[in-house]
Amino acid sequence: MILGESAENYLETILILSRKKGNVRSVDIAAELGFSKPSVCVAMRNLREHGYAVTDADGLISLTEEGLKVANRVYERHLTLSNFFVQIGVSEDQAAIDACRIEHVISVETFECLKKHIKAVSKNN
After folding, report:
1. Which of 50, 57, 85, 97 has the CB geometry, 3.0–4.6 Å to 90, for a possible disulfide?
2. How many CB atoms lie within 10 A of CB 82?
3. Residue (of 50, 53, 42, 65) closest to 13 by Cα position
4. C-alpha distances out from residue 8 to 2, 89, 101, 102, Å
5. How far apart are CA 124 and CA 93, in angstroms?
6. Residues 6+ apart with CB under 8 A from 46
7. How many helices (H) does the chain have, and how many strands (E)?
8. DSSP structure class, residue 68
9. Could you count the other beta carbons within 10 Å of the beta carbon of residue 8?
10. Which domains are assigned to the chain?
11. For the purposes of burial, counting CB atoms within 10 Å of the CB of 80, is it exposed (0-12), middle (13-18) or buried (19 or more)?
12. Cα separations in angstroms, 16 against 53, 73, 86
C-alpha cells in the first residue's frame, strides 16, 4: 500500500505523541490533529488493516515495525526541513507549516541532497 499524506500524518502524530506521553489513544490523536473521533477511528482501522499500527485491549495504539519506519522517515523530513527553513530566515511557525506540506512529496533523492548540503554548510561554519 502506498501511503498518502493523511496516513503519514497519522503515523507521525502517533510517533510524536508516544514520545511525549508514552501511551496513545484515538482521543489523543483527534485532539492533536483537530479531527473528530470518528474520523480518527476510520483512519486507525485503515492503518491497522495495512499493518502500520496496532491497538491493544485497553485501546492503546502503537506502531508496528513498518509503521515506525514510515513515521520516523516522515518525522526526520519534518525536522530537517523545518530547521533548514528557520536557518534561512523563515519564521518557526511558517517553517513548520511548509515542512509539513513538503515532507510528503519531496523525493528521496532531493531530500538526501538537501541533508548533504546542510551538513556541508554546517561543517564550513
Report:
1. 85
2. 21
3. 53
4. 10, 27, 11, 12
5. 27
6. 7
7. 6, 2
8. H
9. 20
10. 5-64 (1.10.10.10), 70-124 (1.10.60.10)
11. middle
12. 14, 12, 21
Identity of the amino acid at 96: A
Successive 10-residue mean pLDDT values, the chain, 125 residues: 83 95 93 93 94 94 95 95 95 95 92 92 78
What count of other Cβ atoms lies within 10 Å of the Cβ of residue 90?
A: 16
Q: Please identify which residue in the block is written with the cell numbers 546542510.
A: 118
How far is the C-alpha of 37 from the C-alpha of 65, rounded, in Å? 25
Q: What 3-state DSSP class applies to 106?
A: coil
Distance CA 123, CA 125 (A): 6
pLDDT for residue 79: 95
Q: Name the one residue in this structure whose C-alpha cell is 502517533.
A: 14
Alpha-carbon distance of 38 to 44, in angstroms, equals 10
